[in-house]
Design goal:
This protein is an alpha+beta fold and 426 residues long.
């Protein structure tokens, strides 16, 4: 009986293989219709991994694992831009996922859900929804340009949803337009004349307790009906997709290498992202490369400002992908981290669990980037980094630093993962 089943499965597999081979042969021997622009799009993608590798140091270009990770980065960029190529529309806008744990480009902050839509700066848009309870919930108006294949993202203005009035159900309603309509009494934000994109930042510090908002957008000066798209419009989307994918994949990938050249290895510097990277106003960034053996650790130390809206520290790899924060503790914010009795924030960065609360897991990356941010704080301290042997770690930490056992760490990581995945991510 088992042999008959086995032979039957083999026959089915052979039939499937024969059918596939026949289809391939027919395709190769006959002239087939195709989608105009598709072959050109594929050719643009063909060169992308080599373009990414060219921005890396020589030793990394030859690393087999990094070569495959470059393929992943290219796919992440393609996925992000494909969503826009399919659904982005200034006349019928929708906030599409922009950066996240899957679309891991532009080193996303682990606490932030990013969504984006293109807009027409001459139009009028209505945004409404429920505010939720996040500490930061803002809309940025951006000017996105890409001359000569180089992307530039300039923030023009930010609107704070938490500052809007809400009704008894916690619902808001705001108009965004070039000018405020006469006799209009509702909430209004000015639409900047250079804006061609809206980006949403939803920042949660306590993943298990804070409630994410809901949000819709509609264009008011056009009908909500959406007719069948024209040939020219569809072709334009496809023609732009290869270039936009390359712009995204290449935008920040060379930054870790630049930090090394500047000498910022296990040392931090200011990271200015407000001029051409779309950074959030009121946010101070710092970063630097880390290099660690398995038996070493970095201790990050900073005096926490007396007043601070939010702060966090994350790790990235050498491609500037944020290290997997869903399945590893590779990020910590002000709610997740412990402040020592002397007011100092101390975070241990290492490959092996040091058994302390404030651990950032390098997750198998011996080199990468440490990045932090202070948001709406009355000071922007530059933390120090000290490299030590893991066996000597206790000599550099306060004596009352708690110990985290392996079972306790496992419980924490499972709870962390569940709380994150229960957010509204897509």
């Amino acid at each position: 009986m088992r042999m008959r089943k086995y032979l039957g499965a083999l026959a089915a597999l052979a039939s499937t293989a024969a059918w596939g081979g026949e289809a391939i042969a027919q395709g190769a021997g006959a002239e087939q219709a195709t989608t105009p622009g598709w072959n050109e799009f594929v050719e643009q993608l063909r060169a992308l991994p080599a373009m990414i590798l060219a921005k890396l140091p020589e030793d990394q270009r030859r690393d087999p694992r990094i070569q495959q990770e470059v393929g992943r980065l290219a796919l992440e960029a393609l996925a992000a831009r494909s969503l826009e190529a399919i659904s982005a529309d200034v006349d019928n806008p929708v906030f599409l996922p922009s950066l996240n744990q899957t679309l891991n480009v532009y080193q996303p902050n682990s606490d932030t859900i990013y969504k984006e839509t293109p807009v027409d700066p001459t139009a009028s848009y209505r945004l409404r929804g429920t505010r939720g309870s996040l500490r930061i919930f803002k809309l940025g108006q951006l000017s996105r340009t890409g001359p000569d294949g180089k992307e530039k993202v300039v923030p023009l203005a930010y609107g704070d949803f938490n500052a809007l009035p809400v009704d008894a159900q916690g619902k808001f309603d705001v108009l965004i337009s070039p000018t405020k309509p006469q006799d209009y009494q509702g909430s209004w934000w000015k639409l900047e004349p250079q804006a061609n994109s809206f980006v949403i930042r939803q920042v949660s510090a306590d993943w298990g307790k804070e409630r994410d908002p809901t949000l819709s957008i509609e264009r008011l000066d056009r009908s909500t009906l959406r007719p069948r798209e024209s040939v020219a419009s569809l072709r334009k989307r496809l023609d732009a997709l290869g270039r936009q994918t390359a712009n995204t994949a290449l935008f920040l990938v060379g930054i870790p290498g630049e930090l090394r050249k500047e000498g910022f290895v296990n040392k931090l510097k200011i990271f200015d992202v407000t001029s051409n990277m779309g950074g959030l106003f009121g946010q101070f960034y710092y970063h630097g490369v880390y290099e660690l053996n398995d038996d070493e650790a970095l201790i990050l130390e900073a005096k926490v400002p007396s007043k601070c809206g939010y702060y966090s520290t994350i790790l990235t790899n050498d491609l500037f992908e944020t290290t997997d924060w869903v399945n590893n503790q590779s990020s910590l914010n002000d709610t997740q981290s412990r402040i020592d009795s002397d007011g100092m924030l101390r975070i241990v960065i290492s490959a092996r669990d040091p058994g302390v609360p404030n651990w950032l897991d390098t997750a198998g990356y011996p080199t990468g980037v440490v990045q932090g941010r202070w948001t709406d704080c009355n000071a922007q301290p530059m933390p120090s980094l000290t490299k030590v042997r893991l066996s000597d770690l206790s000599r550099y930490l306060p004596k009352d630093t708690p110990h985290i056992s392996a079972p306790e760490r496992d419980r924490q990581l499972r709870s962390r993962r569940a709380n994150f995945l229960q957010r509204i991510l897509w």
